[in-house]
Design goal:
The complex is a heterotrimer of chains A (325), B (544) and C (308). Chain A has 325 residues and is an all-alpha fold. Chain A has helices spanning 3-30, 46-56, 62-74, 88-123, 128-142, 145-159, 179-217, 220-227, 232-270, 275-284, 288-316, 318-324, and strands at residues 80-81, 86-87. In chain A, 46% of the residues are buried. Chain C contains 13 helices and no strands. Chain C has helices spanning 3-27, 31-37, 40-57, 59-62, 96-132, 134-149, 152-162, 168-177, 181-195, 198-205, 210-247, 258-266, 274-301. Classes of the chains: A mainly alpha (325), B alpha+beta (544), C mainly alpha (308).
Chain lengths: 325, 544, 308
């Protein structure tokens, strides 16, 4: 595969992140209120204020501030999240793993369930099963994820008591459990929120997969396979699926914005201590440094995700590989 | 063996392993109690804490000289329980001498001495630290050290709640750990995130915004606590907190609030409801000075008649029933249920027509859009409140609708707790919907809250008659006489309406049934947790 | 419910059904029209959308009560569905059906207007980029890349953190200005493919201005994918607005929006589930309708086996 292509692709991704960072800087400084510092009436440690002034040069001209800002970012210093009493980096470090856990599990459910459903729908296209399931899929795709979360909490937590209503584990119990017990407790808490995000995502994936599969099923080579007398199921599974698997990788990469957006709402419903919930709290506390820090990290994730998807896609698809060299 | 069966066996193995917990605590000193609250503490350093979550935790970590008994008497010292001080006596009517228990130790091993007491007093009184208790300590002239276990309190005058003031407002803090931390940085000091106290429980760890763990100090000089661990879980709001109770994720919640929540907790197996006299009241505090500019009167709230009209326009009884059901009363003043001064105070009636007339007479005329204005200034203001409180959100919606019917435009703005505190301190607000968790006596509660210059007073309202009557109420010896003064003071504050008193709810807590010896002290619900225990036959998984 | 709102309600239903039948008759003449109406979910979608739009437009007639009215905060709170209140009342004793109808004004209105903003900006930028080419094209497309990199909700949260309370107009603008990126790419692609065609050269030869060429020749052929993209994006915007309102950052009380209604019901989910259930279901049905219509339009304009 073209090494040049790879380098150019990575450079483009880096440029986008740089642009996001710069625009964030401009936005923070254009807005009312002093950038990076909390409102003047909030009592902040004198040492912290002095440190922020030194690091970000808050009394210097904008040019100097911009350079310092970039330098700080390069060192991983994103400012001070005064609403949490810790640096933005520490705040993100505490919350990103939980969001990744939720998003990752939801993504697996999304792709796994979506793939199976997409295949079933395509195989039974236009027959009764397809009609009913397609409508159901469309409904779930259109449902607001936070409402679905509330419904699931109501049914499975409040009513049936099968699952807890939120948080990542059972404080008080978790520390005492052995490894597998801890795993079980975490999974028990992860189930509902991941299911909520995963179902909606799966509906979208299924729709996409159905379309992709139906398109492939009409192609010449599939007709040839059929003509050769290969069994229907084998035709679908082996030939068509392999060819529509490629978009799945892209889909995974493109799902990241949806998952991050979903995390903001779902984490609120389930009290999940991740990045999304922290963003909501930061807005309520007008903690601008934290909100922009989260926005930047989210963008970096999205860009990285689509970069990885592109690379995997190119690696998997021989046509692109040849075109690139 | 068949592939499927072996798969099943492999899958079942972790489940089997996982189901047995590793805890091995047996007997009388086990137990983990999980408290759930939406009040997330920013710091645990006693003089600067600002919410009930922090207060509950500090109750376990720190000691006062003495604690109130269950009757929470504040006149004299009857019923008070020795904590840091084993005994005390009055050398003369203005000098109180405390003898500290020589066994008391900070959790790092250093003995607690009278120097710590003197240091604490100095810190609590320091305007730089700006403790909420500062104004309640003004009548204490000095705290001196006679020897390492004897602290002497000298008062400026003789008055009935002198003992209470000396003892209740301060948790004693360690001089050897805090003397070198500059007072300007106490709000964000590292000690506040990792406190070392001298109480029955030690601090283990805290994940900000999520959980906190305390463990029993087995060498605590007043007796080893039975419950081995206390865990606090911080959630985003009251709804989630109640949910945790209902699903067994938490063992105790201090305030259920709405009848729906009380019902939910009642129906939860393994939970018991514990009602006790209400110690909070909910109110709307009006800023009588302009938003962000205290040199100018507030365009709406600066006018006494307008404030009165706004109060009269609200059907407070109906709102209280809507939000709290039968579990609340409308207080005749800024007083919770457990202050004995409720009788025959003059309050403003519910009278929308009268309110409308009063507003019109002050120049606020109805315009075409249904709202009033005067000299092209609209009768509009913003009410802020903590986003985590479901009750305040409900009250905001109800008030908005009731005021709309008399032409008043109220905007709703939920905010983060800390941001609200900043707005209040800097006067950058119109009106705030607050709850006040009070001390056992109006002598500190009302003083802290509504007198001139008081630390929790944000309305900038001053009335010298009121202040005079409050001083008199807190100085007379007889309870009956002081009630008369309180009544007169309340009449004044009701007439001036710098605040609208909305509700004094009953406190209904929920505590897990398996916990024995549960007593909730009315001023600080979990203060006696160190005396609770879980009998060995009722231990569940997390108790080990 | 009293007579006038019932009549108005029935009227809206009949209107919705009737218009659909009329459209179906007209559509029979063209192939794409026939293909559209072959999609049963889409037909139902049009009915549902028309019904809610008419109900929202005629809200004062259709809604039996004032949506902000709290007629009995002690006696009428959280009542289950009944004859007087077909969908029940909420915690403040407001009628849920009335709030739903008025809420449609906000939710549908914001959705449509924001999409209009997004489409306008997206089409303009896409066309300019595709037609002009060169550095203008590169710059604009880099801008699009940046826009696509930041998840929309974070951009919105960032903006909310600066305003104390977002006025509805600003909310519409924000939603629109964060959603034009995909459309611009689409239009740019169409413009690029049409740019080299002979009729474009001919038009330029006789001195037609670029704007004229774009509007008269390029856009009509790009119209189909633009419409499909717009229809599908309305649903997305509605979900986003509902989400923001649910978090408390969107529409402010007492204005009802379907998202705020779901949030209102959260505190008494166990006690009065209908207060959250109906608004959420409405959002789902309306968004589903937009998606179904979008799917069917895509098939109608560009029939392929996988669109069926």
């Amino acid at each position: 595969m073209g090494g040049v292509w790879l380098i150019r692709r990575i450079a483009a991704a880096a440029a986008i992140v740089f642009a996001v960072v710069s625009i964030t800087f401009v936005a923070i400084h254009l807005a009312p209120g002093s950038p990076f510092l909390p409102p003047p009436d909030r009592p902040l440690d004198t040492a912290v204020v002095a440190r922020l002034n030194r690091q970000f040069g808050l009394d210097q001209p904008i040019r100097v501030q911009y350079v310092r800002y970039l330098k700080n970012l390069a060192h991983g210093n994103l400012g001070y999240a005064f609403s949490r009493g810790q640096t933005v980096r520490a705040a993100l470090a505490t919350t990103i793993p939980d969001t990744l856990l939720l998003a990752g599990t939801a993504l697996s459910l999304d792709l796994g369930l979506g793939l199976i459903l997409g295949v079933v729908l395509a195989a039974r296209a236009r027959r009764a099963t397809d009609v009913i399931l397609s409508n159901l899929t469309l409904f779930i795709y259109s449902v607001p994820a936070f409402w679905l979360g509330l419904v699931l909490v109501f049914v499975f937590a409040d009513w049936l008591h099968w699952f807890p209503g939120g948080f990542t584990n059972t404080p008080g119990l978790y520390e005492n459990l052995p490894f597998f017990g801890q795993l079980g407790d975490r999974l028990h808490h992860l189930a509902l929120p991941a299911l909520t995000l995963g179902l909606v995502g799966a509906a979208g994936t299924a729709r996409y997969q159905r379309a992709a599969l139906l398109e492939t099923l009409g192609r010449e080579f599939v007709r040839t396979a059929r003509a050769k007398g290969v069994r229907e199921r084998r035709v679908i599974l082996v030939h068509a699926l392999r060819n529509s698997l490629l978009p799945l990788i892209t889909l995974a990469g493109l799902s990241l914005p949806f998952l991050l957006t979903g995390s903001v709402l779902i984490e609120s419903v389930f009290s999940w201590p991740g990045m999304g919930r922290m963003a909501t709290d930061a807005v309520l506390a007008r903690d601008h440094a934290l909100v922009s820090g989260i926005a930047m990290v989210a963008s970096a994730m999205v860009v990285t995700g689509s970069l990885v998807a592109d690379v995997l896609y190119a690696a998997a698809d021989p046509r692109i590989r040849e075109r690139a060299t | 063996m068949n592939f499927r069966v072996s798969l099943l066996a492999i899958g079942a193995l972790p489940l089997a392993l996982g189901c047995s917990s590793s805890g091995s605590c047996k007997g009388d000193y086990c137990g983990t109690v999980v408290f759930v609250t939406a009040n997330n503490p920013k710091t645990l350093l006693p003089p600067v804490i600002d919410n009930t979550g922090a207060r509950d935790i500090d109750e376990q970590l720190f000691l006062r000289l003495a604690d109130p008994g269950m009757t929470t008497n504040t006149i004299g010292d009857s019923g008070w329980v020795p904590r840091l001080a084993t005994r005390w006596e009055w050398d003369d009517p203005k000098t109180l001498v405390f003898h500290l228990d020589p066994r008391a130790r900070w959790h790092d091993g250093v003995p607690v001495t009278a120097n710590d007491v003197a240091f604490s007093f100095d810190a609590y009184r320091d305007p730089v630290v700006n403790s909420a208790a500062r104004n309640s300590l003004t009548k204490i002239a000095s705290v001196t050290v006679r020897d390492s276990v004897t602290a002497v309190f000298r008062f400026k005058e003789q008055y009935p709640t002198a003992f209470y003031d000396a003892v209740y407002q301060m948790w004693v803090i360690p001089q050897h750990l805090l003397a070198q931390v500059p007072r300007t940085d106490w709000l964000t000091a590292a000690y506040g995130m990792h406190p070392i106290g001298d109480g029955p429980y030690r601090f283990v760890s805290m994940v900000p915004g999520q959980t906190l763990e305390l463990v029993a100090d087995s060498t605590f000089f007043q007796g080893r606590p039975h419950l081995r661990r206390l865990v606090w879980k911080f959630v985003t709001g009251s709804t989630v907190a109640v949910n945790d109770i209902a699903t067994g994720q938490a063992d105790a919640i201090d305030f259920l609030g709405s009848p729906a929540n009380i019902d939910l907790a009642r129906k939860t197996p393994g939970m018991s409801l514990v009602p006790y006299p209400g110690s909070n009241y909910m109110y709307l505090e009006l800023n009588t000075r302009a938003n962000g500019d205290s040199s100018e009167p507030h365009p709406v709230f600066g006018d006494r008649d307008v404030r009165r009209a706004l109060t009269m326009a609200l059907d407070r009884q109906a709102m209280s029933t809507n939000v709290f059901g039968s579990y609340s009363k409308v207080p005749p003043g800024p007083i919770p249920q457990w202050w004995p001064i409720w009788d025959s105070v003059r309050t403003l009636p519910f009278d929308s027509a009268g309110a409308a007339r009063l507003l019109a007479s002050r120049g606020w005329r109805l315009s075409a859009d249904g709202f009033r204005s005067k000299d092209s200034v609209r009768l509009s203001f913003e009410v802020i409140f903590t986003s985590t409180s479901g009750a305040r959100q409900a009250y905001a919606r109800l008030m908005q609708a009731q005021w709309k019917s008399v032409g008043v435009d109220m905007q709703i703005q939920p905010l983060d707790q800390n941001l609200i505190q900043d707005r209040l301190s800097s006067g950058k607000f119109d009106a705030v919907l607050q709850g006040f968790n009070s001390d056992p006596t109006p002598a500190s509660g009302i003083v802290q809250h509504w007198t001139r210059g008081a630390p929790d007073h944000y309305s900038h309202w001053v009335n010298d008659d009121f202040d005079r009557l409050v001083t008199q109420a807190t100085s007379v010896a007889s309870a009956k006489q002081s009630k008369l003064y309180w009544r007169a003071a309340l009449n004044i504050i009701n007439a001036d309406a710098p605040g609208i008193w909305l509700a004094a709810p009953d406190n209904v807590a929920a505590v897990a049934s398996r916990i024995a010896d549960v007593r909730l002290r009315p001023d600080s619900y979990w203060a006696l947790a160190w005396t609770w225990r879980i009998p060995a036959d009722r231990l569940i998984d997390r108790d080990r | 419910m009293t007579t006038r709102p019932t009549i108005a309600l029935v009227g809206a239903l009949i209107l919705a059904m009737g218009v659909v039948e009329l459209l179906r008759l007209r559509a029979r003449r063209s192939g794409s029209g026939r293909r559209f109406f072959a999609h049963r979910p889409a037909v139902w979608g049009v009915r549902i959308l028309l019904f809610f739009t008419v109900a929202a437009l005629l809200a004062p007639l259709v809604a039996p009560y004032d949506p902000a009215a709290q007629p009995g905060i002690v006696t009428l709170q959280n009542t289950p569905p009944s004859w007087a209140h077909p969908l029940g009342t909420d915690a403040y004793s407001s009628d849920i059906w009335s709030r739903l109808v008025y809420g449609g004004r906000v939710s549908l209105g914001v959705g449509l207007l924001a999409t209009l903003v997004a489409m306008t900006v997206g089409v303009t930028i896409g066309a300019v980029a595709g037609y002009a080419g060169g550095w203008i094209d590169s710059l604009l497309m880099r801008l699009v890349d940046v826009g696509l990199a930041v998840p929309r909700i974070f951009m919105l949260l960032f903006a909310v953190a600066y305003w104390n309370r977002i006025p509805l107009s600003i909310l519409v603008l924000l939603l629109g200005l964060t959603g034009w990126f995909t459309t611009s790419r689409l239009v740019r692609a169409e413009t690029l493919s049409l740019r080299g065609r002979p009729f474009v050269d001919a038009a330029r030869a006789i001195g037609a201005s670029p704007t004229r060429v774009l509007i008269r020749h390029l856009l009509p052929s790009a119209l189909a994918p633009i419409i499909v993209s717009a229809v599908l994006s309305v649903g997305n915007v509605m979900l986003l607005e509902a989400g923001l309102s649910f978090l408390g950052f969107g529409v402010q009380p007492p204005t009802p929006s379907w998202g705020t209604m779901v949030a209102d019901g959260q505190a008494q989910l166990a006690l009065a589930p209908w207060t959250s259930f109906f608004p959420g279901l409405t959002i789902a049905l309306v968004v589903m309708s937009w998606n179904a219509v979008g799917d069917a339009l895509r098939d109608a304009f560009d029939p392929r086996p996988e669109h069926a």
